[in-house]
Amino acid sequence: MTTTPTNGMAIRTEALTRDFTRVRAVDALTLEVPAGIVFGFLGPNGSGKTTTIRLLLGLLEPTAGRAEVLGFDVGTRAGSVRERVGALLEHTGLYERLSAIDNLEYYGRIARMSAADRTARIQELLTHFGLWERRTETVGSWSRGMKQKLAVARALLHRPSLLFLDEPTASLDPVASAALRDDLARLVAREGITVFLTTHNLAEAERLCTEVAVIRQGRLLAVGRPDELSARKGTRVEVRGRGLTEQLATLVGGRPEVSTAAMNDGRLIVELRDGAEMAPLVSLLVGAGASVEEVRKEQASLEEVFLTLMEEER
Amino acid sequence: MSDVLTVTWKEVKELLAMGGNLKGGRVGIVIMVAVFGVFLPLQTGREWVTSPLTIAYWAWVPLMLVTGVIADSFAGERERHTLETLLASRLPDRAILFGKVAAAIAYGWGFMVLMFIVGLVTVNLAHGHGQLLLYSWSFTLGAFLCGLLTSGLAASAGVLISLRAATVRQAAQSLSIGIMLCIFVPAFGIPALPKSWKASLMQAAMALSVAQWIAVVGITLAAIDAALLLAAMARFKRARLILD
Predict the structure, then answer these.
(1) Of B104, B107, B157, B216, which is most buried by a Cβ count within 10 Å?
(2) Which residue of chain B is at minimal alpha-carbon distance from A163?
């Protein structure tokens, strides 16, 4: 089932737009998702994440623009796209009256896997997720975490080239969520597939994703590697020592590479602009009579970047 | 075709898992088998295998059985949040639709055939007196055909309603109203017709043989089945189902 997308991109959208009666859910979204990575698609509730996935799966038609998934135009070849991707959408989509094995059997038959391949793959995935011993139980009696793992197994069953995961850990407790995340990370690394992941959990995105995009009200606000986005926000530096005063903070704050500098509890807190070096500022402080004992650089977390982007757009 | 069979396989598994009836179950099936496979054959005696009127039972039984489960076909998937995942799969629209219709027909018609056979065994045990009683070929064909067409009628009407309904309950209510209209409109409408019309109708009815009657009813049902199925096909749009 593995397909090599053209131009090394698993997903390309051009000004993809979707209007509902009173709302523009996706607004001229232009995006490229390289093949073979975990791509995080971040945004607050109602920002258009789920609608974007539905557009990419050909479940909804765009109002304007176009999308290409695994080299297929979604507008004209939605069937080919759906054949090659796996999806775990907002809900698990499991048949709760059926057993785990029947749920997987059904989707294996849908994917036209041979009986032998289905059997082997089902055993492999259920074993990986620790569900093999409970394979004959009806899914309705399972915990949410187990159902979510089974739904991921179902999405991966036919060895898709691209996996859509719509907030896979949203309804899970921290333990179940960490377990699913770890299982998923190992499996994705082993199978080398592209993952398009939407999540509210920014720590999760930072840990799993090679690249992320942030959207709000259907508009793309930022896209890049998490560390690139963090660097864009600038670097926070904490300076400890003796002789650090408000005057020195003002002096440092006047430098072009510094966005802010202020004293806080006897420490000098400096926000550096993107790519700025700290060494010349340390020299400046020492030259001005301060005795610097410790300089600690901290990059903004993805959560801070996300919140800043949301603030800027408000 | 294999996609239709795949959907049918899952649907039948689910129907059997839920006991065959939305309201709970196997008890309903057992009661129907007891009534149509044992009680009525015992009451009717040897005529059970010969009277053309019993064909009406074999038209009615699958209609009731399918009506009991078909409301769940799409509305149930929507209610239980399994529809979107199914629509995101590679299955073509028609395979999903026909698979669900086929499963409902197989369920209703399958149990009808079971009751048909149980009824034959009952009549032979109770009224055979050492002689083997059998349905005639034309009787069997008529009963099976009528059962198939009424299953098809309930399945295609039910799928069409279920595609539009927000919940299983809503679909079941709409389907029940539809069936009641089918029964009560002729029941109250025909007596209300002018005397001359009723006389003409009676004359036309008397002019037909039983076989001709079955043919007329069969052709009418087949035409209605096809029309309802075409309407369901036109209604089946992935985007519309997602937004509904």
Answers:
(1) B104
(2) B88
